[in-house]
C-alpha cells in the first residue's frame, strides 16, 4: 500500500481529509501538533497520531493540511526527513506560488484543490444537496498541478486528490500559475467580492422596506435563472429591459480596469497578503 503522512490531521481541513482517507486504499498515518486537534481526531474518528519522524519514515506521499501561513515553516521543518522520491502535496497554490516550498530536487511537489459542488447539479440525495463544501456526499471537480517531479507522479497526485475530496466527478490539470488565477483571482477576488456586494445590496433593499424573506427569495431565484442563462446551463436570452439594466449597471458597479486583478503582479500581491 502507498504510505501517506497527513500533517495537520486534526485541523478543520485535516479532519475532513482524515475521514475520506480512512475509506481509501492509502495507508495513512496522522500528525497533529495541537492537543485539541489530536483529541478531535480521536473523538471523531478513533484515530491516534504519531510523531512527524514516525510518519515520514518510508512515506510515499506527504500531505500538508495546514494553513497557507504555515506552509513555509512546516515544509522547512520536515523537508530533510522526506524520503527521496516521495511526493509533497499542498492543498492550495498560494504557498507554492509564493516560493514557500524548500528546494529539494529529488522530491515531487503537487498541488490539488477542490472546485466545490457546483450550483447546477443533478444531486437528488438530501445529504448531497446540503453538502455545499464537498468531500462528504456531493460530487465535485478538482484541479491539480504537478509543480515539480517526474511526469508519472501526476497520476499519483491525482489519485490523492480524488481520495481526499471524494466523491470527485471531474479532474482538471492546470499549472500552479493557472491555479493561482483560479484562486485567489477568480474565486475570491472576483466571485467572493461580488457575492458580498450582492448580499449588501439585498440588505439595502431590506433597509428600504422590503421584507427580508421576499428579498432573499427574489435574489436567490434570480441568481438561479440569470446564472443558468449566463453560464449556458439553459438556452435563453435576457429581456430588453434586463439588457438595458446591465448596460447601465455594470459601469456603475465595476471599474473599467477591473480585469487587472488577473495581472501577474496583482495575483502575486494577493498571494503575498494571504501567505
The amount of beta strand, in percent, is 5-15%
* Overall structural domain count: 2
The order of strands across the largest sheet is: 2-1-3-4-5-6-7
Mean pLDDT: 97
The structural class is: alpha/beta
Structure description:
This protein has 275 residues and is α/β, with parallel strands linked by helices. Helix content is 47%, strand content 15%. The chain folds into 2 domains: 172 residues, NAD(P)-binding Rossmann-like Domain (Rossmann fold, 3-Layer(aba) Sandwich); 94 residues. It contains 11 helices and 7 strands. Helix 1 links the parallel strand 1 and strand 2. 29% of the residues are buried.
List the helices and strands and how they pair.
Elements: E1 3-7, H1 12-21, E2 27-31, H2 35-45, H3 52-56, E3 61-64, H4 71-78, E4 87-90, H5 94-97, E5 108-114, H6 126-129, E6 140-148, H7 153-164, E7 168-173, H8 176-207, H9 212-230, H10 240-253, H11 264-274
Parallel strand pairs: 1-2, 1-3, 3-4, 4-5, 6-7
Antiparallel strand pairs: 5-6
In short:
With 275 residues, this protein is α/β, with parallel strands linked by helices. It has helices at 12-21, 35-45, 52-56, 71-78, 94-97, 126-129, 153-164, 176-207, 212-230, 240-253, 264-274; strands at residues 3-7, 27-31, 61-64, 87-90, 108-114, 140-148, 168-173.
Amino acid at each position: 500500500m502507498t504510505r501517506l503522512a497527513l500533517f495537520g490531521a486534526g485541523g478543520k481541513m485535516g479532519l475532513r481529509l482524515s475521514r475520506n482517507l480512512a475509506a481509501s486504499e492509502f495507508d495513512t498515518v496522522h500528525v497533529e501538533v495541537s492537543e485539541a486537534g489530536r483529541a478531535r481526531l480521536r473523538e471523531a474518528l478513533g484515530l491516534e497520531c504519531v510523531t512527524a519522524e514516525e510518519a515520514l519514515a518510508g512515506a510515499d506521499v506527504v500531505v500538508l493540511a495546514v494553513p497557507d501561513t504555515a506552509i513555509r515553516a512546516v515544509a522547512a521543518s520536515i523537508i530533510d526527513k522526506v524520503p527521496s522520491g516521495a511526493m509533497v502535496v499542498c492543498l492550495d497554490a498560494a504557498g507554492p506560488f509564493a516560493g514557500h516550498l524548500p528546494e529539494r530536487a529529488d522530491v515531487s511537489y503537487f498541488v490539488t484543490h477542490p472546485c466545490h459542488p457546483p450550483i447546477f447539479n443533478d444531486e437528488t440525495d438530501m445529504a448531497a444537496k446540503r453538502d455545499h463544501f464537498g468531500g462528504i456526499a456531493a460530487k465535485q471537480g478538482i484541479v491539480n498541478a504537478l509543480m515539480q517531479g517526474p511526469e508519472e507522479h501526476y497520476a499519483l497526485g491525482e489519485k490523492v486528490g480524488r481520495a481526499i475530496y471524494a466523491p470527485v466527478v471531474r479532474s482538471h490539470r492546470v499549472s500552479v500559475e493557472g491555479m493561482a488565477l483560479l484562486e485567489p483571482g477568480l474565486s475570491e477576488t472576483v466571485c467572493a467580492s461580488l457575492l458580498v456586494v450582492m448580499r449588501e445590496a439585498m440588505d439595502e433593499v431590506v433597509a428600504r422596506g422590503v421584507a427580508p424573506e421576499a428579498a432573499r427569495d427574489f435574489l436567490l431565484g434570480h441568481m438561479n435563472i440569470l446564472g443558468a442563462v449566463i453560464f449556458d446551463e439553459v438556452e435563453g436570452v435576457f429581456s430588453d429591459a434586463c439588457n438595458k439594466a446591465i448596460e447601465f449597471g455594470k459601469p456603475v458597479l465595476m471599474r473599467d480596469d477591473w480585469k487587472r486583478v488577473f495581472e501577474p503582479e496583482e495575483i502575486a500581491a494577493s498571494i503575498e497578503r494571504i501567505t
